[in-house]
Amino acid sequence: MHHDYFLPLHQRTLIWQFVRREVLTRYRGSLLGLGWAFLTPLLMLSVYTLVFRGIFKARWSGGATGNFEFALQVYAGLIVFSLFAEVTTRAPRLVLDEPNLVKKVVFPLEILPWVAVLAGLIHLALNLAALLAVAAIARGGLPLSVLALPLVILRVAEPPVDARRAAAARLGGLAVVETLRSPEMPLYLMSFAGTFGGSSMFSMLGYYAMDRAGGSPSHVGLMFTALGLGAVVTQALLVGRVTRRWGEPAGIRIGFLVGAVGFLAVALAGQPATITAAVGLTSVAMALIRPSLAALNSRLTTTGYGTSLGMQTSFDSLGRTLGPLWAGTIYHAAMAGPFLAAAGVYLLAGIAALRLTVPTSGRTPPR
To answer: Does 173 reside within a domain?
Structure first.
């Protein structure tokens, strides 16, 4: 057992060789090389800042509201999250991804988790250096408290066992009941409706295009391209204007009602071109619904933004799970059934959205 605790020390040379290979191999042959380690989170930061700060006008409670301060705080959280996401994503496949090493009896498989964690820490260090450099340039220096940063990273206080059990009990039972009674519950149901209808169409669209309209694989590919393009254009040009001018409830109403028309058009269409046009209309609707729901949820939440966002994601996932199951069940009985059902669900959600309101204090005035 002693040997296990000191494994990184005993195998430090081998671990370092694998970490070095891991870091260099990831960017070998790319134009920017190791520069991608800096560029990738910066690109993500730009998108998050544009969407949440530029479109939804998000602000930190009690903190600085400047664009630069917002970007620094988002970036600080993003680089820590990237480490966690990278390590946890790779963990289940650490052994499967190295079949040649597994077959070597003398190879210490225990070093593979250390390799993954240390490679992730190297990327975190690079991004942290970039964050501190930008902050120092913009603010004219850094406070002495930055010297305590390694302690913050290396030691994260864990609550006592009793406190964890009490928190788990609250989250496991009472929090769910409170959430189901909260003002956000209609928004969760609308999130379910949005993904239920969308996933019903996604799962059967290829079969429908070929069985109903005699479409080819190229036609199906064009339909999914229309889905993507419609979402990109809508989120870039339309979502912000609609929510700023009329508020998030209007974006939700318009999205569901337009989506109902789009799904109905898919069900009635008989040619690949008309199906593609109808699919593009549904993509516009779905691209309006999701960000509008997320923004309104953040304003109405009474259980905390993290909890409400988690519940909304759970209802999203439930819709994505049940939508294809339902669509596959009724497709053989009625080819247009999944799309007619999606149109009905969207219509009901659009009618329910007519009762949505946004807090007056949280409205962003039109520009």
So the answer is: no
Please tell me the distance from the alpha carbon of residue 64 to that of residue 60, in angstroms, as a whole number.
7
Give the C-alpha separation, 52 to 335, whole Å. Answer: 40
Same domain for 103 and 44 = yes
Cα–Cα distance measured from residue 23 to residue 83, given in angstroms and rounded to the nearest whole number: 14
Query: Quick check: 265 pLDDT over 90?
Result: yes
pTM above 0.70, yes or no: no
* CA–CA distances in Å: residue 214 to residues 205, 281, 325, 357: 12, 21, 24, 45
pLDDT of residue 332 exceeding 70: yes
The answer to whether the CB of 262 falls within 8 A of the CB of 285 is: yes
> How many CA atoms lie within 13 Å of 230's alpha carbon, on the beta-carbon side?
23
Nearest one of 233, 236, 232, 287 to 262, comparing CA atoms: 287
Query: Rounded distance, CA 64 to CA 132, Å?
Result: 18
- C-alpha–C-alpha distance, residues 303 and 174, integer Å: 12
% of the chain exceeding 70 in pLDDT: 77
Q: What is the number of other CB atoms lying within 10 angstroms of the CB of residue 254?
A: 20
**Does residue 269 belong to any structural domain of this protein?**
yes
Q: Residues 100, 215: one domain?
A: no
Please tell me the total count of domains within the chain. 2
pLDDT bucket at 365, cuts 50 / 70 / 90: very low
* Domain shared by 139 and 268, yes or no: no
The contacts of residue 303 (CB under 8 Å, 6+ apart) are 175, 178, 179, 182, 184, 311
Cα separation, 6 vs 108, in Å, equals 13
